Amino acid sequence: MHERYGVADDDITRRRNERAHTAILEATVALLREDGYPNLRLDAVAARARVGKTTIYRWWPGKALLAIEALQTLVDPPHVTFSGDSRADVRALVTRVAEVWTEPTVGDTLPALAADTARDPEARARLVELLAPRRAADTAVLLSAAARGDLPHDVDVPLLLDVVFGTLLFRRMRGAPVDDVVDELADLVVAGRRPRVAPAP
Amino acid sequence: MHERYGVADDDITRRRNERAHTAILEATVALLREDGYPNLRLDAVAARARVGKTTIYRWWPGKALLAIEALQTLVDPPHVTFSGDSRADVRALVTRVAEVWTEPTVGDTLPALAADTARDPEARARLVELLAPRRAADTAVLLSAAARGDLPHDVDVPLLLDVVFGTLLFRRMRGAPVDDVVDELADLVVAGRRPRVAPAP
DNA sequence: CCTGTCACGAAACTCACCGTCTCGTCGCGG
DNA sequence: CCGCGACGAGACGGTGAGTTTCGTGACAGG
Questions:
Q1: Within this chain, do residues A103 and A187 fall inside the same structural domain, yes or no?
Q2: In Å, what is the separation between the CA of A27 and the C1' of C12?
Q3: Which of A108, B132, B143, B195 could form a disulfide with B118 if both were Cys (CB 3.0 to 4.6 A apart)?
Q4: Does the keyword Transcription regulation apply (chains A, B) (predicted)?
Q5: Does residue B113 reach within 7 angstroms of strand C, measured from its CB?
Q6: Spans in chain B with pLDDT lower than 50
């Protein structure tokens, strides 16, 4: 065949369309925020991005994968700083998670995507990848706390992260307040202290 | 008006159709299990239940509410027994939750419903109600453990339940094993013991 | 300067499914 | 025997996903 086909697909395909590419992702984020994933129409994305629907389908196989890539920027961890105080670091971690889940674009879209990709292992894998950078950053926080001796040396970090992510997401899903439990959750992680009800004022 | 309108709607409406009513719910459960919520077609429900689509829409406003009611029987708690041993009771609780979430009909459908009802507070309320009986039963378990002195007397029961439900559901959503963490989670609840990695065999 | 190529935007199109509507049937009470 | 109302079947309109078609403009090579 021709030699040009030897180059990576992305290099060939995406050279021309920087503008369209980012415009599509931005439009998707905006519409996810306004209408939610179930009401996201690709016609609307195309219209807002001033792009033909063709262009969208040239790069993404469908609605789900487009939404996943669009969420990436929102979910990626900001800068994670280490204070050296495990309690403070973990509390910051929990707060960051609460913020992401509370963001409507993420908190509502994520369960929708989980449902949409339930029967498509490949798409599901992509969805899990979406959280990978954040999980990596948060893993580092817990490992550093463990190294400092503030967590058991053989602590199951992934499971402990699931406790934080899962508890907050579940509260979001059932409409319970999320921000209110940050401290209790941080104490649970860092001290094994089970949550108490706030004393009467 | 006529006196017959004084009777509750259900009594009037549902007298005639016992058969159709249960057939619809059973068909919905079966199709949820086979195809998943996103692929659930009401035409298919009607066909399998040998019922006109009209009959479905006579009683349910749409797909979401029908699915919620169909899940009810699966989510309702079986018999909850108290052994008197808090650790054993809590472990049984966690196991029950893991079983429900693992059941594909529930574990896949619940996030989908959460997404579908994100912009409809009334439907969302119904969805939360779906879990109410189970939550009530599990609340009793934790309260009895607290009364026995095995949990702090002022323990935040709802939040602790969110930890159990949320952690397991989140693991299910991200494709991680659910059954494997039952013991660790039970220990977290009953002793504040943070999860450890299993020692090498 | 001309020409072929290729990605693009716009829009028409197909297909599937939701929710509604129509119609003929059947069971039940009067 | 008659009439009412719920029923099953299926046709219908509307909406949105994903595909196809077509005309345009940017760029490269001659």
A1: yes
A2: 24
A3: A108
A4: yes
A5: no
A6: 1-15
